[in-house]
Amino acid sequence: MSIKSLIAILASLALPLMAGAQTLDYVQADNESDYGARISAGVDWKVIPKKLHIEWSEEVRTEDGFDLSKLYSNIGLDYRITPWLKAGAEYSFINSHSEKNGWRNRHRGRFSLTGYYKAGRMTFSLRETVQATCKDYSVNNYQEPQIDAKLKSRLKFEYDIPACKFDPFASAEVRNTLNAVNPQSFTYDSVNDRWNASAKDYSDVYIDRLRFMLGGTLKMRKTHELDIFAVLDCNYDLDIDTNSEGLEKKDLDGKGYGNSYPMLTLKDKYFVGLGLAYRFEL
Fold this sequence. Notes:
By secondary structure, this protein is mainly beta. The protein is built from one helix and 14 strands.
């Protein structure tokens, strides 16, 4: 089964749940594909070996090949509660760029719990992460909230090859949006022949991304490691096309599009990238 088929199946399961509550029509936009790179470097300071770590990293991401799209500055704290359970907290300053909006800043906070299970040279881990991203710029609140909330679940497999400095890994992650704009808040005004939102309702929940990674960790020296990986992002987005007053957008003549205008657009975007992540341990 291809990744595209998997996404189509998941989307077909999610859409009836959303469509059952909403009253707006929607259209499927053309699928988009993109490629790029992710390069990062960081320091892992073992404050208390095997217990408490402080991590700092800088990351550069590109899209459309080599176009600079995002800059990440991350600082985090990890604490090993037991040999099989770790808690972590992280702050990220994100500077993203697009041709339409230029450079814009975001602030992100994360809290995660990671469970581990070892079987011989194999290690399995399950990480659950709750994150909130605050946009440092004005948004159309009828299209998106000022602060996005997400829940991410990642399953990872690692294998320690005997007498080898390269250890392979693979992971799969599901991301859920927790406070998307709910299409059910839009109702049809038959008097004025238009759609409008009665209130800002951020209660819609759905899977908006699947991520798959395949790569390995190269142990160059005792305190130097380099992750080499490929990543596939399957993004799904439900876009609500409305103006800042919660009304449907007007055409160039200033007229409403009417009941037949699809204010909901489903977008599927696939990203394939190569990555390098260097770590230095203190």
